[in-house]
Each structure stands twice: as C-alpha cells, then as structure tokens.
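EI: anyone free to look at a 127-residue chain?
SC: sure, send it
EI:
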Amino acid sequence: MGAKGSDPKFLVVDGSAVAYRAYYALPHLVAPNGETTNAVYGFIRMVNRLLTDLKPAFGVVVWDGGRSTERLQIHPEYKATRPPMPDELRPQIRRIQEFLDYAGLRSIQIEGIEADDLVATFVKSWC
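SC: here you go
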C-alpha cells in the first residue's frame, strides 16, 4: 500500500437508499413531459457530489434485489412494517439507472440480495 491517502478509492453507493432519500428530501418536481423527477434530480446531484469530492478510482451503485429470503427465514418480521415503494418512485429508479449507464457508472442488482449486503461484500473485498 502507498502513503496515507494515496491508495485508490473505491466508491460504493447504496442506490436504493440514496434514491429514497432524494425522493423524500426534495419537493415534488415534474419534467415538462409530466414525469416526476425529484428522486432523479436529487440522486444525480448527490452522486456527482461524491464523485467530485472523493475522486474515486472505481465506483459502483448497488440496488436492492428484493427481500433476502435467508433473512426472512431467520426473522419473518424483517421489514414487515415497511411500506411498499411509492408509485412515483419506481419509474424514477429506471431513469436513475439509465443515467448511470449513460454516465459510465456500474450499476448492480442481484435478485434476492439487498443493497446493504452488496455494499458489505464490496467493502470486504476491497479492504
């Protein structure tokens, strides 16, 4: 390893968490075509800020791939009270993923694996 701070940085973003945060943090924004865009706008601003401030050599955005069946077997009440994704957020997730593709940022979603588990896997692999 090199001198402190000289090692390449690897940015892992929990896309699901950032999209929800942007959706609820910003007022209802609508594009000229009528699409709701508050989560898209907030997500792009937050990720661009991370890229600008941290200047990572590598980066990935991970997404929830549905509830972990393994966790549900161990703890059936896991996220039982969590409300479903708001209807206006779902199409924005697709738009965010389109932006990530366009921007050349890797985006990963694995069925049955939650984003926080993917974050942990990447961090453990990188460190």
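EI: The longest strand covers residues 58-63.
SC: 👍
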